[in-house]
Amino acid sequence: MSLFKSAINKYNLSGVAIALSFVLPNTTFAAEVPSAEEDIEVVVVVGSRAEPRSIHESSVPVDVFDENDIIQSGSLSGEMSQVLHNLVPSFNFPRQSNSDTADLVRPAQLRGLSPDQTLVLVNGKRRHTTAILNTGGKTGRGSAPVDLNTIPMSAIKRIEVLRDGAAAQYGSDAIAGVINIVLKDNNEGGLFSATYGEHNTDFEPTDESITDGETVLVTGNMGFSTGDGFVNVSAQYRTRNATNRAGFDQVPGWEMDPEWSWSGDSFDAAVGNKNYKVGDPEDKGYSLFVNWEQQLTDDLNLYGFANTSNREATGSNFYRYPYNTWNNVPEVYPNGYLPENVGETTDNSLVLGVTGGNDWQWDLSANYGSSEFNLDVENSINASMGVDSPTNFHIGDFEYEQMLLNFDVVKLANLGNIPVTIALGAEYRNETYQTSSGSEASYAIGPFIAAAGSQGIQGLRPEDAVDVDRDAMAVYLDTEFEVTDALTLATAVRYEDYSDFGDTLNSKLSLRYAVTDNIALRGAASTGFRAPSLIQNSYQATSTDFGDNGELSTFAILPATDELAMSLGAESLNPEESENYSVGFSGNWDFGLNVTLDFYRIDIDDRITLSEGVFADENGTPIAELPGAGDHPGIQGAQFFGNNVDTRTEGFDLVVQYNWNNFDFSVAYNANDTEITNDGTTNVEEINTLETAAPDNKLIFSTNWQSGNWAAMLRATQYGETKRVFDFGGGYEPEQTYGSNMTVDFDLQYAFNNGITFAVGANNLLDEYPDESIDDIAYFGNLPYDVIPPVGMNGRYIYSRLSYKF
C-alpha cells in the first residue's frame, strides 16, 4: 500500500482518486449488477500462445476495445490512430502540422516511446511499415512506423493492446508493446454507416468563429457464408477538408532585409494577414479489407485476409513572402506563395495460411505487405531558375515491401501432473526498400543567386536513389505451465539473425498468482530488441541552400555505412536493446468490478537517433578532404543515424471498470516518465523529443449507458503536461511547458426497430485549446498553438451518423 501511496504523490494522482470515489462501488449494489462473467470477462489472444484467456487471467496487461467502443470513440474522419488516442491512456497521437511528410503519414506512440517501438499485428500476423521516413516531424523523428490509418474501422472486430514488452514472443519492434487488430468474421449480416462531421470552433487568437475540416466517412461490412466457412468484406471511403489555425502574420524582420528584398517595396500588405496554414491537411482515400476462412476437413482449414488502400493528402509548408528574391520570383508570385506537399500513399497486403493437426496444432502462412508513397510539391518554385522555373515538382517515389513465411506449432501436454502449453515456430522475413529521384528542377542549381531546388521540400537526386534488401531468420520456443490452480508460469525464448547486422537472442519470464478467486498478482521480466529498420539503414537525401556570405551549401542525410559517413564517425547500426519489467495485480468481482494496476520500467540501450549536423571529422578535417567525399560532390555537412542514446522509462497503468444496471463506468490512467541515462546527445531538441514532448500522464473517465433503443457515451480526458524546446542556433533555445487540458466527448444514438440507427456526437465538446505559444515559439504570430499538446489545435468537432444493420 505504501508503494501505491508513493506513486500517488510522485505522479500527482489526485484526479484519479477523485474519479475512483465515483466509480468504486458500494456493496449494497451487488445484487442489482449483472454478473462479471457476462459483462467484463473479455477473451484475448495476444500475449500468450496458450488457449485464449480473459483479461483477468492474463499474466500481462491487455486492453480490449470492441466494435461499439470504436464506433463511439468520436474519432476524426475514421482514423485508427485517433481511435486509439481516444481510448488508450498510454497512446499518444499528436496531429502534426507543417512537418513535411509527418503531416501526411502521422506517427503515434505507446508509453511515450518511439512509434517504431510498437509492433502491430493483424489477426496475429505482422503488419508492414510505411515507406516514409519521418525526418521533419517532432513525434517519432527518424522512424518509419506502421500506418494504422490504412485499416478501415468497419473491418475491426476488436483491438487488443498488449502493454508489455513482447519481442521475445513476436520479434522486433515490440519493446513498448503490441497492438493486435482482430478482423470481423461474421458469416452473415452487415452494417453500413455514413457520418458527416466538421469543426465548429471559436478561435481566440484571431477572434473568429471557424467552421472547417468538413468530413464525410462512409463505411460498410458484410459477411457471407460459404458452407463450412465465411467471407467477410469491409470498405471505407473518406474525404476531409483542411483545417487552418494560423494567426495573423507580423512578418519576421529579416524578410525585409534589403539584401534579399526589392528596394522600395513594403511588406505592409503581408502584415496582419493569415498567410500560413496550420492544421489538418486536406485528404481523401479509400480502403478495402477481405477476411475469409474455409474448413476443408475436421482437422484442416484454409484462411486468409487481404487489403488495399489509397490516400492522397495535401500538407502545407511555411509561407514565402512577396518581395523576398532569395526564395521567391516576384514576377511569378507577386503576392507570395505557400508551397504544399502532395503525397499519395498506397498500401497492399495479403496473408494466406493453412491450419491443421490434432495433437499438435500447426499453422503455416505466407504474409506479403507493401507501402508505396509518391511525393510532389505544388505551388512552389526553384528561385535559382528565375521565371523559367516550374511551379510543381516531383520529389520522389518510395516503396517498402515485406514478405514473411511462418510455421508455428502448439501442443497441450502434461509434465507430470502439470499442464503445459508448448509453442514453437520459425519465421523467414525478406524486406526490400527502393527510392527514385524527383524531377531535375526539384534539385537543380540554376544560374541566379537564389535558393536552389524546389521550395518546401527538395527532390531526391539520382545519387540519392537506393535499392536494397535484407533477410532475417527467427526461431522461438514458448512454454506456459499451470504449476498449480493458482500459479501460472510462462517463458519465451527467441533467436533472430539478420543479414545486415547479425543476430540477437531474447527471453521473457512472466507469472500470475491467484491470491483468491477474485484477486491475482502478476509480473514479467524480459529482454527485447528493435532491429534498425531497412529504411534507417539506407535512406539518403540531399539539399542545397545558401549559407554564410551567400555561398551555396549542400547538406545530406547519409546511410551510416556510407564511406563518407564512416569517415565522419558513423558506425553500422546495431539493434536497440531493452530490458522490460512489470509488476501488478488484477481484481475481478462478480458484482461488476474489474481493476488492474501495473507498474513498469523499460530500459533501452542504443536507441537509434539522427545525429546533429557534422562538418568535419574528429580531427577537424573538412568533409571535402575525407574518404568518400568524391561520391557526394559539393557536400559541406551531413547527418546519419547512430545508436546514440540510452533511456529509462518508468510509469504505471491503472484501469478500473464497473458495470451497474445499464451503465458501464471506466477510469483509465497512465503516468509515464522517460529520461536519458547516458551522454549520447547534447541536442536540446532531441532531448526534448525523447524526454518531455509526450504527455507525462493521461486520465480517461468514460461512461456508457444503454436502455431500450437509446445508447449514450460520455468521456472526459485529462492530458498532462508537454514541453517544446527549439534550438535556433547561437544559444537561442526557447522552451515552453504546455499545461494540462481536459476534453469532453459524447455520443448519443437511437436504434429504430428496422435496423436503422441515428447518432449525434462531439469530440472536444467544450472547445478546449492548449496554452498559446510564447512569442519565441509562435513565429511572429503565425503559429499561435504548438503541435505537441495532445489536446490538438482544431477545437470542437461535431458529427452525425446514420447506420443500417442487417
Provide a short characterization of the protein structure:
The chain has 806 residues and is mainly beta.
Describe the structure.
The chain is mainly beta and 806 residues long. It has one domain: TonB-dependent receptor, beta-barrel domain (Maltoporin, Chain A, Beta Barrel), CATH 2.40.170.20. The protein contains ten helices and 36 strands. The protein has a 22-stranded antiparallel β-barrel. β19 and β20 form a beta hairpin. The longest helix is centred in the first third of the chain and has 10 residues, at 2-11. The two termini are 51 Å apart.
- The dominant shape is globular
Uncertain regions spanning at least 5 consecutive residues: 1-40
Radius of gyration: 27 Å
CATH architecture: Beta Barrel
What's the total number of strands? 36
Q: What is the number of helices? A: 10
As a percent range, the share of strand residues is over 45%
Largest sheet: 22 strands, antiparallel, barrel
> Span from first to last CA?
51 Å
The tally of domains stands at 1
CATH evolutionary superfamily? TonB-dependent receptor, beta-barrel domain
CATH topology: Maltoporin, Chain A
Structural key phrases:
mainly beta, Maltoporin, Chain A, 22-stranded antiparallel barrel, 5-stranded mixed beta sheet, 10 helices, globular
